[in-house]
Amino acid sequence: MVIFLGLLFSTLLIGISFLVPMNYWEESKIATVISFTVIFSIISFIIWLVYLFRFNPFKRFADDNTVRKPGSALVEFISYSGSICMFVLWSFIPPAIESYRTLNQLASKELASDINELNLKVSALEFDSTVMAFSADTAVFSKDIDATNEIDYSEYAYTKTVPGANYRYHSIESMNEVLATCHYYTKINDTCYVLRNAPYLDFVSGMDLNQVSELKQLAPIELYKKAKSINIAGFNSDQYFEDVVRLCKKYDHNWSLLDAESGRLRKDIPIYEFENIRQKYGLYQVGYNMNDISTRMTRWTAPHLVEYAHVVLYVVMFLSMAIFMFRHCHIKPYFVSYLMAFLLVAIMSLLMAISGVYSSTSILVVILVYFFAFLSVAFSVFYTQKRNNVQIIATNISFFVFPFVPYLITLLYLTIKQEGTIGEEYELVSQQIYSCVPICEVLGVLLLLVVVELVYKKIYAQWLSMPEE
Fold it and tell me: What distance in Å separates the CA atoms of residue 200 and residue 456, rounded to the nearest whole number?
């Protein structure tokens, strides 16, 4: 019934999202909609908990034949996860519909084309009105500079390379990476380069738009070259200004030819500094709207989907584990388990601060030692005649840590392997640490589903079946 009502509300939410009026140039109100959806999800979750606990939640599992059936705990845990996942996914429905409707009204390629046209024509109009100078930054590469600690040593640098330029020292290993960050560079000698960057003519832009658009946004150096060639060849400034007005009004319906502060026509306002171009053409709101549209279009790219998956995974997993624990032990040890976990973290942090031990290896070793110690105490229920709260508290803590054991062990191994390495070998191990995260997460979830049925169901049932001390 819970799943049926949840799907019914999801259908209703989809219908409402399609019926609400929306224009692509209007500022998105999705943050407010998501806030209300989250509040409704929380209220629904609480009502579901009341329904779930409407009878005595503390079952005598040792006497309940249904619990002894194979797969009963696994089905129970998955049913909790499915219900909670439905509550969490409600918050993703409105932004998904908004993105779909935005893409139906305006293609990503059209947005990229408008951004390029607006930047290029504003740059062409103001090319001779302000200083279009390239920035200069002298990079000196040295073997004595650590790649992880690059510092500005301008007071010790040379003074003959480029007058007035900034000097910055880098490690010799980072030369290719540093040179790739500039638009072009001039080689002075084998270890000294002058880095030059074009003026930032991308007055408006769309964040991450290049990930979804076939037409890419022009980089500042490309805009500079095109604007310069247009000025050399000559152009109709009045027509260019009309095109700028058309594009500005397309994305900001409140845009005006008159500047609100000076009361003058925007094309008649003189420009003395490069930064004032946005103010002259009223590009702040236009750029904001363009970026807002781009955000809606790029909301479901692969990097964002990974972030959303992590949010859903951990919220669903932690809440499912908390409910499973609550259904299989008593109130007092249940809440004491959280208190004990918090005190252990606080005490260990204090001891490490006092002793000066901050290494990742030490922290990982301590966590794993505590985990196996709690797991041993949990298994002691099979070898005692009477139950005590220490056993169930240890069971709860080890249960909560279990999904992270694959990652903790892998991270400990790679951290030990990384110690003493430098340069490329250090970076290689760092990449291995990063790449192992999704594999360990999947392995942790699968391991959790296995131990729920094969291990923790039996531990909880055994503990509840024994008399108290």
Answer: 60
Say what the alpha-carbon torsion angle 46, 47, 52, 55 is, to the nearest 10 degrees. Answer: 110
**Cβ atoms 194, 186 nearer than 8 A:** yes
| Cα–Cα distance measured from residue 358 to residue 340, given in angstroms and rounded to the nearest whole number | 22
Range in 53-67, 118-132, 205-219 the model is least confident about: 53-67
Q: How far is residue 165's CA from residue 136's CA, in Å, rounded to a whole number?
A: 6
* R_g (Cα) of the chain, nearest Å: 31
Question: What stretch of H or E contains 187?
Answer: strand 184-189
Decide: helix, strand or coil at residue 91: helix
Tell me the C-alpha distance between 7 and 153, whole Å: 62
pLDDT tens sequence across 389-399 = 899 999 999 99
Coil, helix or strand at residue 97: helix
Residue 458 in tokens: 């039996």
Rounded Cα distance between 17 and 340, Å, is 45
Contact (CB, 8 A) for 217 and 112: yes
At 278-333, the pLDDT tens digits run: 888 889 899 999 999 999 999 999 889 999 999 999 999 999 999 999 888 888 88
The tokens describing 355, both together, are 């002793």
Strand order in the sheet with 192-197: 166-171, 135-142, 192-197, 184-189
3-state helix, strand, coil in the chain (%, to 5): 65, 5, 25
Calpha distance 140→160 (Å, rounded):
13
**412 vs 440: CA distance, rounded Å:** 13
Is the pLDDT assigned to residue 156 strictly greater than 50?
Answer: no
Q: What are the phi and psi torsion angles at 446 (to 5°)?
A: -65, -40
Torsion angle (degrees, nearest 10) of CA 137, 141, 145, 150: 30
Q: What is the pLDDT of residues 313-324, one digit of tens each?
A: 999 999 999 999
**Rounded to the nearest 10 degrees, how much is the dihedral formed by the CA atoms of 240, 244, 245, 248?**
170
209 exposure class (CB count in 10 Å sphere: 0-12, 13-18, 19+): buried
Q: What angle do CA 203, 204, 209 make, to 5 degrees?
A: 135
- How far apart CA 413 and CA 164 sit, in angstroms, is 50
Give the model confidence (pLDDT) of 115-143 as tens digits: 999 999 999 988 887 767 777 777 777 66
Q: Report whether 290 contacts 251 (CB < 8 A).
A: yes
- Report the alpha-carbon distance of residue 98 to residue 165 in Å, rounded: 48
| Residue 454 neighbours by CB distance under 10 Å | 12
Distance CA 94, CA 28 (A): 11
SS3 109: helix
